[in-house]
């Protein structure tokens, strides 16, 4: 189920980041747009992943009661991914706001997936395996 988990996180984060970039567009600063898109993408992706895999399918680790350390790491991943995506998207690709939001969601979600996989690599704990 690791591949399904990764796909859900990436797809949802890209879509939510793109929608955020499309809605906010030129109304706010490009740095704030990247941060908001990445953060909303990561939050929506983690929520969708937990809902689909744990609640509907009944497989995968239950992340409903995650420790504060993981929450702080996800915030750092969101900020780092969003600012990196904004910098790359603005200087290298010259992306429009909707694509910049999608790119910020993608980079933030990739960092979040690496955090998720690292956190769940302790197979000794029950229901703490990505199967």
Folded structure, characterized:
By secondary structure, the chain is mainly α. The chain has one domain (2-119). 76% of the residues lie in helices and 0% in strands. The chain contains 4 helices and no strands. Helix 1 (2-24) packs antiparallel against helix 2 and helix 2 crosses helix 4 (97-119). The radius of gyration is 15 Å and the shape is elongated.
End-to-end CA span: 5 Å
Helix content: over 70%
Number of domains: 1
Number of strands: 0
- Inertia-based shape: elongated
The major β-sheet equals: none
| Fraction in beta strands | under 5%
Low-pLDDT parts are: none
Q: Average pLDDT, to the nearest integer?
A: 83
Q: Supply Rg.
A: 15 Å
What is this structure, in a nutshell?
The protein is mostly helical. It is 76% helix and 0% strand.
How is the secondary structure organized here?
Elements (H helix, E strand, L loop, with lengths): L1 H23 L5 H27 L11 H26 L3 H23 L12
Helix pairs in contact: 1-2, 1-4, 2-3, 2-4, 3-4
